Amino acid sequence: MSSTALATAAATSEAQQSRTRFFRNPWRHPWFLEGFTWLYLIWSLAPIAIAVLFSFNKGKSQAAYQGLTWRWYWGDKVNSIWYNPQLHSAMIETLKLSALTTVIAVPIGVAFALGINRWRGVLPSSFNFLMILSFVVPELIFGVAMFFIFTQMPGLKDLGLGNVAEVLGLVTWNVSWPAIIVQARLVTIGKQYEEASADLGCTQFQTMRRVMLPLLVPAIFASAILVFSGVIDDFVIVDLLSSNAANTPMSVIIYSTQHGGNGGPALNALATVMLLLSFVVAGAGFGGYRFMTRGQRIDGQAALTAITGAE
Amino acid sequence: MAHLPPEPLEARPGASRARSASRGPKPYQPNKWFWVLLASPGMIWLVILFVIPFYAMLAIGEGKLDRQTESPVAVYNPFTWSSANLTNVWRDLFGSGAFAGGIAVRTIVYVAIASVLSLVIAYPAAYFVARFAGRRKGIFLVLLIAPFWISYMMRMLAWIDLLQTNGYVNKVLSFVGLGSPNWLGGHSYTVILGLVYGYIPYLILVLYAGLDRIDPSLIEAGRDLGLGRARTFLRVTLPLSRQPILTGMLITVLPMLGDYYTNTLLSGARDTSMIGNLIEGQLSTPSAGQGAILSLIVLLVLLLPMLYYVAQTNRASQAAS
Fold this sequence. Notes:
The complex is a heterodimer. Chain A is an all-alpha fold.
């Protein structure tokens, strides 16, 4: 065997070794997984970025880029979201529904969670069961049932479809957020605070008001954020329960305008406003949650998952 | 206690405890009615706006049709229920020339493909972010969660823009010489893509939360005991992520089965329509009663997975206490 052959053999075996060493290393960085994750993120977010870009499109196309403008926000006196009465009222309607639903659903859900969690028995556990069930029922089926009571049921029929029906439907659909989140928090808090405050002479009401509620503030806040943003994004219930242009929120406008054909960049502008609104709520939620849980061992990631309901 | 006949203290079981309790501070015994009072608004709300609506749905499904106004009439008394709608729906689902049966099968196929695809895409991404993102976890998490905060309609709109015949997707495709298909012309693959894209953020979130909770020392133990990367994953990580996978699948499959808007927006064609389209299309028509029956059948079919989810949620909260 010549020396060069030996050298090449040694070189190849060394290369092989380093390759096997790379694959054998149990703590090597998973480049493939990371690449896959980045591809996923691009696939999930790039379309949104492009849709936002088209809301600034000079022309009427939603598919071909023709330059930047504020035309579809307020520049166009007829078709922009600020001047088109339908699009303008849709923005107001979304805000109105979100605010009303949050204001009604959160107190009911929080009180429900407190009561059900401490009151032991068959009745409270069946109602808790019902509450979680309302969380998983497909929205269409729930919406259809709601549609029927507001168009058929004596008593509720007189209310008819529209704002009241929408708020009632949305509250029922969203009340499970505070109910579930507050209960989960109650479980981690435990009973010792309540017992301590009772030992120190508080009445039950005082215990609730001065001990439990302050402890629950972050959970209540997170659920309010979830309800508010859930209503912004809600589609099925408001689609089935809205009756005319005056009580149609943004999501339904996007749906009904787009599926007839080209909705034009004004629709993208509307969707962008919706996006901004959601992100502002999420940002406020994150900041608020961090502020309320300061001094506790809760990091940014935990706060992020808390306001997304993934706890 | 005061009205009990006097007994020697030693004879009563637990007497010493009772005595020490009476000397010390009163044990915490909250009044039950306070809890009842707190819970009652929510309970009443659920009865009126959750239980009764489903009963009304049943009453309309089992009700009659007013021939003059061409509208369904609810019958609230179960003894006078008519099964006309039920028979009709049954015939549409299983009879000869049944059109609803085909739609039901299509729905199941679409949802099955879409949910499996979602899992295949979501799991590796969630796994990477939960296990390997290291110091960049925060930024990855923000990007992963972002779609959750973007409205479903916005996300569908984004794809409608991209998939138009002169849209960016076709520009890229024709640039590499793959032609320019009419994506929005009523194709199954577009609808399935829409379903995957629409529901994957919810799945990925559940998976991330579950995978993040796995104790890394268990995985290290697997390694220390001589398992390779792949086998550690198969023997340790995968079994531990069974629960999040099941929950995540449920949380995506249930709404997918009631979806009608993805289909309308991305296809609109009759031959891609799903069960949701069928129900939604019947709502303001004389056959609303059949829509009600169909909704109840869907509900019945989904009852088991829903109950599983409720039991899981309950068990999780009890295990923590």
